[in-house]
Amino acid sequence: MNKIVKNTLILTAITVVAGLLLGVVYGVTKDPIAKAQEEAKQEAFRSVLSDAETFESDTEFDADAASALLKENGYTSDDISEVAEGKDASGETVGYVVNVTSHEGYGGDIDISVGIREDGTVTGIEMLSISETAGLGMKAKEADFKDQFKDKNVEKFTYTKTGESGDDMIDAISGATITTNAVTNAVDSALVYFQNELGGGSNE
At what positions is FMN phosphoryl threonine found (predicted)? Predict the structure, then answer.
């Protein structure tokens, strides 16, 4: 009996100490991890909206309202998770970064940052998170695909498998139509939000 009590006390002590150590480790690493995540996000913001010097999160952004807006426009598989306002060195707004999560990816959700200038021009896209098939859908991370959206001022994009030309046409990734569709719809979702909530720009 005494042996059982002794072993129980020992296990309890080990558990308590382990818990305390985990708490200490979490406390030590929490801030650096958060800082690294924020820096990665800021780097993505700068890559898609290079005209901006700083980025401020839109405190009035309403995810539920954004979701309803997308659904009204036919984008039922996308969610907008964050909107940031990009400002130049003088503090003037030069555009926005809209973070979109697509639930249409072949390998799971795809998180994308979309940069949009004040006039509605898409300045670039960047994958924040993607887990598509290597050699196929993962080509969405490559410049050859992403740059098709860059510096284009259109109402919406459409992907093509036949090589149709036009600023609004995106060449589909060979063997990865699902990924192409997911990314294209995500960018279009960002444009819908911009056009309805952030000033609209001009497509003339």
Answer: 177
